[in-house]
Design a protein that fits this description.
single chain; about 80% helix; mainly alpha
């Protein structure tokens, strides 16, 4: 890690450090979200509910691919930040290489399985006779180049773990810029529909990955993607997986919950699937923007935790909670006042617009509290507490949303479906407060920086993490 980043992590004021890390990460998140929004927008210009529905039906496959990237894109940076804070650059380099190659191998296995069972997968997604063809086109193209989508998650996440957020953002801008340019070309000029949307997304991903690889190959980072540093160990895999798996499993469950929602919604008509797909873009956007902002705090927290500077970490946690809440309040605006206009960007169908607006206004109740969930979750990831991190990750979908889907649908029909996510987020926010307060109190009791010895941080056994090897 270079001197500038060490200065940022160790000596800059907490607000300056968090904003320096968070704002570029936030921008990169917004840029990445434009990938899917752009596809949906230009497909919407065709005014074809079948193709619009196909984009929504294929989205769970997109999420599963992203989930594999998130295993290593979330798990490896947490360990890398702690290793850098502990002064072990060699372990950090090895972790970067392991995350890169193992993520590629896992993606290839997943892709092969999906192609073998493609027809059953399409049926599970909830396709009808009308949406089957365009959904298959989109899924086949995305699966064929899934490795680039995985690397597009892992490589910038590793850069952010050592404070190189500028380079991470540039790659996002390259990929999204190409996607925005190519979408109208493939969809409108070449009349390729959903297949064109898939090609535009893939080409953007490929160019972004090429840019990221050039940074690593030119030695512009302290991490590595070279085969010589690919030295898997039980310790590295355990540290990566205990943080990465919960978030990945959560995203896979989110994918399945989308499938369940689509299947339930199909009972009310194809227009409900389209409405949920379009409105879901905005709810996903708000969720991801909050994650993007708060996750800028995670490498700072992990570094200072690894360095034993618990008071500095606690100050960062408080600042992230307060400033993140401010971000969430701003994000209420599109839900409360701009919802009809947002829906009209993608469709002119009055039924789709009406259901979509209902869904967005139902979700507005929980937007102000998203920062609480995300800050607590990122804190547990930063300290290597995989159990509590997993509890929050899984709680949102598995413990609350999926049961609420069926319960609310049974009790209140379509209105119940629209409020299921709202109820789930209220419950997981309460859960975050209950399990986050003990950690907050523990951090508040800790004193001073850790010495430069090989001793582990003096932290209670309840919040102890696996030993980080010190620099040899």
């Amino acid at each position: 890690m270079d001197t500038k980043n060490i200065e940022l992590m160790e000596r800059s004021s907490v607000p300056k450090a968090i904003l320096t890390l968070s704002i570029p990460t936030l921008l990169s998140t917004i840029v990445s979200l434009l990938y899917n929004l752009t596809d949906t927008y230009f497909i919407g210009l065709l005014d074809d509910p079948i193709q619009l529905g196909a984009i929504s039906l294929a989205f769970p496959v997109f999420m599963v691919i992203q989930a594999i990237g998130n295993v290593f894109g979330n798990g490896a940076p947490s360990y890398v930040s702690r290793c850098l804070g502990a002064g072990n650059q060699q372990e950090a380099r090895r972790t970067g290489a392991v995350a890169t190659y193992v993520s590629v191998a896992a993606t290839l296995v997943m892709t092969a399985l999906c192609f073998v069972f493609l027809e059953p997968v399409l049926q599970v997604l909830g396709t009808s006779a009308d949406t089957l063809g365009p959904t298959r086109q989109y899924v086949q193209i995305v699966l064929s180049f899934s490795v680039f989508m995985t690397l597009q998650s892992v490589l910038p996440a590793l850069l952010r773990s050592e404070g190189r957020v500028k380079e991470a953002v540039i790659g996002m801008v390259i990929g999204t810029g190409l996607n925005i340019v190519l979408d109208p070309v493939f969809i409108l000029l070449l009349h390729q529909g959903v297949a064109g949307a898939a090609w535009a997304t893939i080409i953007g991903n490929i160019f972004a990955v090429v840019y990221y690889l050039s940074i690593y190959l030119r030695g512009k980072t302290s991490l590595s993607v070279f085969p010589r540093d690919f030295k898997p160990s039980r310790r590295i895999l355990a540290e990566v997986l205990k943080i990465g798996l919960p978030s990945s499993v959560s995203q896979i469950i989110m994918s399945f919950s989308n499938i369940m929602m689509n299947n339930l919604a199909s009972g009310y008509g194809d227009y409900v699937i389209s409405a949920y797909g379009v409105a879901g873009k905005l709810t996903t956007m708000v969720f991801m923007i909050t994650i993007g902002y708060i996750s800028g705090y995670m490498p700072f927290a992990g570094y200072n935790y690894g360095a034993g500077k618990y008071r500095r970490m606690l100050s960062a946690m408080r600042f992230s909670l307060i400033s993140g809440a401010g971000v969430c309040l701003v994000l209420l605006i599109p839900f409360l006042w701009l919802a009809p206009g947002f829906l009209r960007l993608f469709t002119s169908d009055p039924q789709i617009i009406d259901v979509g607006v209902q869904f967005l206004r139902a979700y507005a109740w929980v937007v102000p509290f998203m920062a609480i969930q995300m800050t607590v979750m990122c804190t547990f990831q930063a300290v290597g507490d995989g159990v509590r991190s997993m509890l929050l990750n899984l709680g949102r979908q598995l413990l609350f949303y999926i049961p609420f889907l069926y319960l609310f649908n049974h009790l209140w029909g379509l209105t119940g479906l629209l409020y299921a996510q709202t109820g789930a987020d209220i419950c997981v926010t309460i859960l975050a407060v209950l399990i986050g307060l003990p950690l907050l109190r523990k951090l508040g009791k800790m004193q001073g920086p850790r010495s430069a010895s090989v001793e582990e941080p003096h932290i209670s056994e309840e919040y102890a993490v696996s030993r980080i090897p010190t620099k040899s």
